């Protein structure tokens, strides 16, 4: 059985870094902050053993984040350059 990672409050400085790194746009649908509410998402959900590490965080719009929920969906993975 996989152990769930405890949820922590993501510091504002980390949130700002992730938004900036992701060009203030949803990593799934591409909407920008002027078009929608952006959220920080765990790429591999905490419930599935994902970490709170910055490499497991991505920017998603509220709609894409709600569609993903706690599931792992390969369409929602971060693309590293």
Automatic annotation (TrEMBL):
Pfam family, one: HNH_5
Protein name, UniProt field: HNH endonuclease
InterPro entries found in the cross-reference section: HNH_5, HNH_nuc, NA-targeting_endonuclease
Organism domain of life: Bacteria
Start and end residues of each HNH nuclease domain: 13-66
Keyword terms of this UniProt record: Endonuclease, Hydrolase, Nuclease
GO molecular function: endonuclease activity
Coiled-coil segments on the chain, per record: none
């Amino acid at each position: 059985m996989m152990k769930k990672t405890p949820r922590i409050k993501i510091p504002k400085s980390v949130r700002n870094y992730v938004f900036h790194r992701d060009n203030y746009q949803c990593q799934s649908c591409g909407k920008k902050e002027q078009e929608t509410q952006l959220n920080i998402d765990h790429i591999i959900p905490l419930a599935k053993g994902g970490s709170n590490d910055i490499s497991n965080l991505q920017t998603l719009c509220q709609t894409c984040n709600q569609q993903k929920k706690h599931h792992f969906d390969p369409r929602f993975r971060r693309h590293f350059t």
